[in-house]
Design goal:
The protein has 232 residues and is an alpha/beta fold. The protein has 8 helices and 12 strands. It is elongated and about 60 Å long. GO terms for molecular function: cis-regulatory region sequence-specific DNA binding; identical protein binding; phosphorelay response regulator activity.
Length: 232
């Protein structure tokens, strides 16, 4: 990927650091956008469609890990975490939450740029960019970034469990998601045999979202295997 076509979103509440990174990245041909809060970061990713996100953990409004988890709800864009936290446990948590790399402050600019280039190469190799967080299924619309569902332009109230199931299916649009994968992700490994839980919650989701819950067009059951989300 050529640097002059690479978009980098830098999220940090330290004006001097934002300025230093913007100057250095612009000088090397990157297109740079910045955000100083978690809320602004989530909005900027959808608007700017970056090839890589540089994310500080110590943001003033939303913890950086929460921002990271929000991003991972709808995009696989590479994320480099910046943090003054040097404890190994903090690094493990960030990487397990979906970060691609972890850079400890203060850092050398050349090392940071090398890590940035590596993240860009990984993203290019996998064809990753930030996808649209809004999925229009026709009968209903799912906004993965805002964690909202609307039907006929009216908000639909989902329980956290219902949202967890729907989000997982929508993120894997068109693909079969096994019962065990959903149970493990939403409830945890202790519930892998509780397929009846899924039947109950899928029935509830269909009542709320499908035009004809008895003959669903979007939340499809693959008998004995799992479920699949498809658009109209």
């Amino acid at each position: 990927m050529n640097a002059d076509k690479s978009r980098v979103l830098v999220v940090d509440d330290e004006p001097q650091l934002l300025r230093a990174l913007r100057i250095n990245l612009n000088a090397r041909g990157f297109a740079v956008s910045t955000a100083a809060t978690g809320a602004a970061a989530l909005s900027a990713v959808a608007r700017f469609n970056p090839h890589v996100v540089v994310l500080d953990l110590g943001l003033p409004d939303i913890d950086g890990l929460t921002v990271l988890e929000g991003l991972r709800g709808w995009t696989s864009v590479p994320v480099i975490v910046l943090s003054a936290r040097t404890d190994a446990a903090d690094k493990v948590v960030a990487l397990d939450s979906g970060a691609d790399d972890y850079v400890t402050k203060p850092f050398g600019m050349e090392e940071f740029l090398a890590r940035l280039r590596a993240a860009l190469r990984r993203g290019a190799a996998s064809g990753v960019t930030a996808e649209s967080p809004v999925v229009d299924a026709g009968a209903f619309v799912v906004d993965l970034a805002a964690k909202q569902v609307t039907r006929e332009q009216e908000p639909v109230h989902l329980t956290p469990t219902e949202w967890g199931i729907l989000e997982m299916l929508v993120r894997h649009e068109g693909k079969l998601v096994s019962q065990s994968d959903i149970l493990n992700s939403v409830w945890g490994p202790g519930y892998l045999g509780q397929s009846n839980y899924l039947r109950v919650y899928l029935a509830s989701l269909r009542r709320k979202l499908e035009e004809d819950p008895a003959h669903p067009r979007h939340l499809i059951t693959e008998a004995g295997m799992g479920y699949r989300f498809v658009r109209a």
